[in-house]
Amino acid sequence: MSKPLLGLILGGILGALDGLSALVSAPNEPAVQQGIVGIVIGSTIKGLIVGVVTGVVARKYNSMGIGIGCGLALGFALALVVALLQGSHYLDIILPGAIVGVIVGFVTQKYGASQHA
C-alpha cells in the first residue's frame, strides 16, 4: 500500500478514535455529549489531512525522523487551531492530535510502500 493511502486510512481511523476520546476526557460536560458527532467528524477530517500530507512527505523523504516530525508538527498545528477556536481544553485536544500525527508518521514511513517498490 502506498504511503499516502496508508496515511489516509490510518489517519482517518485514528482521527475518529481521537474524537471519541472526548467522551473519556470530559465525560460529564454537556457540550461534549451534545457535540460528539461534530467532534468525531472534525477529528476524522483532521486525521485524514495529517495522514495524507504525512504520507506524501514520507514518500518524498525516506527518513523516519522527517516522517515522525512532519506528523507531529502537522497534528500539533491542526489540533492547536481547533483548541484556539474552542478556547478551552487545550491539553485534551492538542495532546491526542499530536500523538495521532506521530503514530501516522511512524507507520507510513515504516510500513508504507516506497515509490520504487
Describe this structure in words.
There is one protein chain. The protein has one domain. Helices cover 83% and strands 0% of the residues. The longest helix has 25 residues. The model has no long low-confidence stretch (mean pLDDT 91).
- Percent range for helical residues? over 70%
Unreliably modeled segments: none
Overall shape? elongated
The total domain count is: 1
Q: Give the helices and strands as they follow along the chain.
A: HHHHHH
Tell me the radius of gyration. Answer: 14 Å
Q: Could you tell me the strand content as a percent range?
A: under 5%
- How far is it from the N-terminal to the C-terminal residue, by CA? 10 Å
Number of helices: 6
* Topology, number of strands: 0
Structural class: mainly alpha
User: What kind of sheet is the major sheet?
Assistant: none
Q: Kindly report the average pLDDT value.
A: 91
SSE inventory with pairings:
Layout lengths: L2 H18 L1 H4 L4 H5 L1 H25 L3 H23 L3 H22 L6
Name some characteristics of this structure.
117 residues
What is this structure, in a nutshell?
This protein has 117 residues and is mainly alpha-helical. The protein has 6 helices and no strands. The longest helix has 25 residues.
